[in-house]
Structures are given as C-alpha cells and as structure tokens.
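A protein record pairs a chain with a discrete description of its three-dimensional fold. The shape at a given residue is found from the number at the same position. Here is what such a record looks like in full:
>
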Amino acid sequence: MKSFFAALLMVPALAFASGDAIHLDKAPNVQGDNAALQNGARLFVNYCQSCHGASFIRYEKLMELGLSEQQIKDNLMFTGEKIGDTMKIAMRPDEAKKWFGATPPDLTLIARARASGDGSGADWLYTYLRSFYKDDARPTGWNNVAFPNVGMPNVLWQLQGVQVLETVKAENGTEQHKLVLAEPGQLTPEQFDKQVADLVGFMVWMGEPGASNRRAIGVGVLIFLAVLFVSAYALKKNYWKDIH
C-alpha cells in the first residue's frame, strides 16, 4: 500500500487545458551512450517490433552500438533472420489494418518525422509513450493525451502501470486534465522514464545512425577552416605589407 501511494505522488503529472496544444516533455539525450542505446534496441525488439518494422535498418548495423554479431543473434533476433536482413516484421499490411484500423507505421524515421515547432521528434515520442491512460470506451482499452483516439494499445503498461485521466478545475475556472497513476507497474515512475528515454534514444539513432560521425566530421572541418583562415590572413598581411 505504501508503494502504491508513493507511486501516486511520484508520477509525473501531465496537465493540459481542454483544446490546447499538448506540452511536450524534453526527452533526455542518450546519443553516444551505447549502454542506453543497447537497452533501447532490446526494448524496441521486445515491445515494438511485433507490429512496427524498422525496414531501413539492418541487424548488422546494431554492431555500431558495441554489440557483437552473436549478441545480436542471441538477444535481438528471434525468427530466424539473417544478420544482414532488415528489421522488418512478418505481419502483412492488410492484416494489420484489419486488426488495428490502420497499418502500424515503420518506425525507422519516426523520430525525424514527428519533429515540429512544439519540439523535436524525440520530445514527441517521449511524451507520447508516457501518456497512455485507461479508457474502456476505446477498442484497445487505452487512449493517449498526446495522440487522442490512437489505435495503438499501451504495450508498456506492465512496466508503467495503469494511468487514468482526471478532470480538475484550475483557478481561472478552466478545466484541466491530469494523468494519475492508479495502479503501479513493475517499475517506479523514474525507472520507467529512463526506459522510455532509452527506447526513444534508439529510435532517434535509427533515423540517422551516422549522426555522431557527421557531427565529429563537422567539428573537424570547422577547426580546419579556422586554421586555414589564420594562415591565409597571415599570408595576406605578408603580401600587402609594403603596399600603402
């Protein structure tokens, strides 16, 4: 009972006014943290890949996260795929549309596609995955404040627990809705947020696996141009020193 009330107090309260835009929580940046990205890959394969593919990424690409080929085969490949195969799913699009009402999207580029003026794609995903609540009026039994009437069920509910949406009145008289953790899950809210951050970080990595190399090359190019500028300026001064 104590852990239940503690969970109620610790859950991050996502409040928003009726009809207003959803505030996006800032997603932690785990790029460059291979342990976090490896955990994100594990979560993606176990909780997302049954319905969502990542057909622009090959399993062997995960070796760039510090995983060996054998680790990938043992822990991230379960249906006889080859290491050079893309991370596709066996579910046919027509079957998926029949079951869910819409074909679940490929998630390779989802973090880039969800970027907007409200925040990055990572921010949207981080908010979305933590914003499911129980709604018996929906076919799946779940709804989401960041994506109202979404067809996707809350696949992470055992980790997070069951949230409900409560309506409260603000001091100015407007109605606000707040997510409250009604039943705790296997993880504390802080632990769950960390798992979601790792999962989102992996989806960000999938969108551009070479981003860290690109940034490193960019920094190197800027340093080279700075050195070249100093050399060129010194050469220019030497050429023009006798001309008045």
About this structure: The two ends are 87 Å apart (CA to CA). The chain is about 45% helix and 15% strand.
